[in-house]
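Z., the sequence and structure:
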Amino acid sequence: MPSVHFVGGRVNGEVPLQSDWANTYANSAGLLVKEGTTRPTIEGVRACRCWDGIRLTAQANGFLLKGCWLSEIRDGAVEDDYLRGGTIEDCLFDGCFSGISLDPGSNDRDWSDQVVAIERSLIRMQAFLAKPWLLPCRRYDLAVMRGFSWRSWNEPMPTASW
């Protein structure tokens, strides 16, 4: 599939903000970049009350998110669990549990050569009830405060340059 340029649009989700994770979890996103899409540009999207705001898939390397406003996002404003590199530019993530999810799960992925550049953007974190076995969210505190989530709790967060 060729590169895609998605401009504009509004997603009004209905994900509850007060219930616990187990009763709320939905494997969904306001905008999903489909498998096979390369170098996607997502510009001017407004999404609120979604589980994940924008979810990137394996071939989305070189993505550009520009001028997007995502609010009340119950999990990740951007889910980049395939560890693809790209740019987040002039975006507002207002009230999200995790700004950018970099959680490859049990898959072995070498992401050492990938960079996600964040330019002129603001990420405001919002506490939501997490997975019941993690309450009161102590394992997530560090990830939430930094705006990133990642799987390996025993390793430091990847180097970030601001």
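Helices lie at 21-24, 141-146. The longest helix spans residues 141-146.

Let me know what you think.
H.
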